[in-house]
Amino acid sequence: MIEIHTGNTKDKSYISYRLEKLGRDWVLYITGGVPHIGSVTCTEKTGGTGETHQFTLRHHREDIIVRMALERLKRLLEGEILVVGGIHYDGIEPDQIRQIEQNCASLLERLTAKLIDN
Predict the structure, then answer these.
(1) Domain holding 13: CATH number?
(2) Do the Cβ atoms of 99 and 64 come closer than 8 Å?
(3) By residue range, what is the domain housing residue 53?
(4) Which contiguous run of DSSP H or E holds residue 55?
């Protein structure tokens, strides 16, 4: 398991990435604030299709974050990959959303570096 995080809950910028091995496959959890399921995306590498499937719950916007993580991870990892994203902070402002997006991009870079180093 690899777990990395950045930001803090006080300014509504805390984000956590937790990558777990599941047999020969992988699950990445992207959470912040109140953890929940907002969007999921997965690869279908077995069988050679390489298709990506995504489902986003109504009123959620984690789809971009989970898709970006999946696209990066599928080039680095063998097996199927599932990314689950759920980030919720009450009363979040546009500048705080931008900070969360930046934190997610930074964590993805850090996670990628850890995977390459291992």
Answers:
(1) 3.30.230
(2) no
(3) 2-117
(4) strand 51-56
Number of domains in the chain: 1
Tokens in use for 28? 């990445």
Q: For 70-95, what is each residue's pLDDT tens digit?
A: 999 999 999 999 999 999 999 999 99
Dihedral (CA of 34, 104, 68, 112) sign? negative
Q: Residue 23 phi/psi, 5° resolution?
A: 65, -120
pLDDT digits (tens, 9 = 90+) for 12-36: 999 999 999 999 999 999 999 998 9
Instruction: Name residue 66's amino acid.
Output: V
The answer to whether the predicted template modeling score (pTM) of the entire model surpasses 0.70 is: yes
Instruction: Report the phi/psi class of residue 9: left, alpha or beta, with left for phi > 0 and alpha for psi in -120 to 50.
Output: alpha
Q: How many CB atoms lie within 10 A of CB 14?
A: 18
DSSP 8-state symbol, 48: S
